[in-house]
Write a structure and sequence with these properties.
By secondary structure, the protein is an alpha/beta fold. The protein contains 10 helices and 17 strands. Pfam families: tRNA_U5-meth_tr.
Length: 362
Amino acid sequence: MALHRVNTDDYRQQLAEKAQRLQEAYRPYTDLEPEIFPSPPSHYRLRAEFKVWHEQGRAHYAMYREGEHKKPFVIDEFTVGSELINQLMPKVLEAVNASEVLKKRLFSAEFLTTLSGDALITLIYHKKLDEQWRAEAQALQEKLGFPILGRSRKQKVVLERDYVTEQLDIHGRTYQYKQVEGSFTQPNGEICRAMIGWAMDACADDEGDLLELYCGNGNFTIPLAGQFRKVLATEISKVSVASAQDNIRANGVKNLDIVRLSSEEFTQAIDKVRPFRRLGDIDLDSYDFSTVLVDPPRAGLDPDTCAMVARFSRILYISCNPHTQLENLAELTKTHRIERFALFDQFPYTDHTESGLLLVRK
């Protein structure tokens, strides 16, 4: 399904059906009904990527239908995209079509926006970007009031910055995040805010220290740090770790350390299987971990990480793939019971479902 145009009247019914399917799938492990966090029915997506289709001397935005990746179709609106994306799309396209330099061999345009009104536009080419391109892009940047980034093979041209700044108001406090182009960020801003608030509520009565695996740019980590004595978080992406360090400083967090380790490496470290130079300044024995937060990729937790996570008294498990979360629950529910269960509708009008679980040791 191509989501450039949706019928918002169908949203509530689709969400109810999605919740019913999720509850039935999890019934072997819990009788709880999921707490449902609906998305705004339109303009919810903060990032978008479009193919640029050239026809009769003009550039157009285009998308593909599922299973038809050789047959793009031209679009002139994107109602699931943020209002800022929809405002910028025609302005960028008009400028591209008015400039042979900007238009020539342009094959993709990406938009990254925030709830707080920031934006970054990335133009991607099958050609080397020269000084003439830079001058034209600079003029477009000044006209739009938002930064332009140029990419081609082995080339990245940053005119001003390669990131946006997001501000999320959660439980009476504003958190600031640097989100770098090309790194992972939550695509649905309102659902992101709901997920963080739900995680904070789930940990409200916790005591001890927090371990987080797959922490990204500190999306969950930074707000949760205020509810624990100490926090240790891990992430494998260098770009995300650097962003997280910037976000720690921007939010004035003092009790949080982030290290660049995969979940498999951290499992080896905590089991003292092997030392890691990246943990040189971290004394793992000084932590009294009571809770572990995991938000893994679609593959879920590997067997060793799943076994390590099961040692914790409380497990907060955010999943972008209920199928692999269910596979992990076959092991985790041997030692833990589900106390909270949530559905986060990150991608309305699709079968995609994101879920949240709080598991407590039996």
